[in-house]
Amino acid sequence: MPDTLSFETYFFDLDGTIFLGDVLLPGVRETLCYLRSQEKKVRFLSNTTIRTRKECRDRLRRLGLAAYEEEIVTAGSMSAVYFGERPERVRVLVAGEQALVRELAAEGVDTTENPSEATHVLVGMDREFNYGKLHRAMKAVQGGARLIAANPDPNCPVDGDLIPDTWSMVKAIEAASLGTVEEIIGKPSAYYAAKVLDWSGTDGDRCLMVGDRLDTDILFGAGHGMRTALVLTGVSTLTDLDRFPVRPDYIWATMDEMLPRSQRAGTVM
Question: Is 227 exposed, middle or buried (0-12, 13-18, 19+ CB in 10 A)?
């Protein structure tokens, strides 16, 4: 197995991997600083739809980390790229929060709140999801709009809790409309993988994917030629490994376990 510091590019999930809520997770600062000092490529790959790339950058900086917008990919920004590449004219009804709408607008993608005008329904996490939003999405899908999920996350880790994420809203819309999701944009999709590998300029076997979820982060990396590391600071646990078909290459209690012992937090020289 390759040494953990032998890779060219390091992909990191955000929620549950870099931070929980407004708390920076143990070992993160030391790990990222060391990788940058070694001139490694660092990229942040999130399935969030409730923050834009710029908002993710600003959040990382508030936590004291170096971060640049071009290093960050979210399920929201990737959804905008996806729709911007469609050869046909699209009008997207968004079942999600304003960050998702802003990412689409930045890519020049037309949106609508009128179900009869929608060619697609894009679903993201929505902390104010309600009956009216469900009804609009249902009508659009029943009228022929294609149902697209920004990500497949059923829940999202926050400090001391889990909250419903995109897939919870997707299943409600599927049930109401009798429709089916036709495309998933975020991790672990092949579309997301092809884009981030292209943008990073790195082959999969030169990348390490670090995340807290077996079903998105680890499946994403393993399914697209990358090595993977599960960090036990978020959703997935050691017990979950027994029920999951893909095993990560590395398992860490905290992120700085990838570093030489002399570089880890709290080490006394």
Answer: buried
The C-alpha atoms of residue 129 and residue 237 are separated, in whole angstroms, by 29
Where are the strands (E) in the chain, listed by range? 9-12, 19-20, 23-24, 41-45, 72-73, 92-95, 120-123, 146-149, 155-158, 161-164, 181-184, 207-211, 227-231, 250-252
Q: Is there a catalytic annotation at residue 15?
A: yes
CA angle 168, 88, 70 (to 5 degrees): 65
Say if strands 41-45 and 72-73 run parallel, antiparallel, or are unpaired: parallel
Question: Using CB atoms within 10 A of its CB, is residue 200 exposed (0-12), middle (13-18) or buried (19+)?
Answer: buried
13 is catalytic: yes
Candidates 3, 13, 22, 203; catalytic one: 13
Separation of alpha carbons 192 and 182, rounded Å = 15
Q: What is the pLDDT along the chain (269 residues), one digit of tens a residue?
A: 679 999 999 999 999 999 998 999 999 999 999 999 999 999 999 999 999 999 999 999 999 999 999 999 999 999 999 999 999 999 999 999 999 999 999 999 999 999 999 999 999 999 999 999 999 999 999 999 999 999 999 998 888 888 999 999 999 999 999 999 999 999 999 999 999 999 999 999 999 999 999 999 999 999 999 999 999 999 999 999 999 999 999 999 999 999 988 777 655 33
Does the model's pTM come out above 0.70? Answer: yes
Catalytic residue, candidates 15, 165, 217, 256:
15
* Distance in angstroms (rounded) separating the CA atoms of residues 11 and 99: 22
Q: Residue 102 to residues 79, 149, 220, 241: CA-CA distances in angstroms? A: 11, 17, 26, 37
